[in-house]
Input
Amino acid sequence: MFILCFDFGINNIGIAIGQFYTRTASPIVSLKACNGIPVNWKFIKDLIKDWSIKKIVIGYPKMSYYKNFNNNLFIKYINKFVIILKKKFKLKVFFSDENYTSYAARNFIKTKNMFYNLFYSNKSIHSISAVYILESWLKINK
Output
């Protein structure tokens, strides 16, 4: 079974695809977003159809990092994105801790050679973050 993962952002949303069998994920793309809403829903729809996606995982920050978690604007954007995803695609949505995944993605790129630096541009950091989010979720959900 294939799982689609999003590293949510206000301007860019990273996407990765993973599977239960190998418990690994691969970066796909970072989509442009406007106020947290993807500008290309068709791309997401095609991914879901082409890969027969059954579940979606979204990176979600831990509550302890926000003093007023429920009123945090970023959290409101994520929740709005989740509601739209559920309505559009009728799939189960799960959450996974996304704290430090962008940091890990940047370190991944820094430690690789020049080819990786050219291949993984700054915008791709989001899709690599989605890999970290999904792989950590896969480890917990066996």
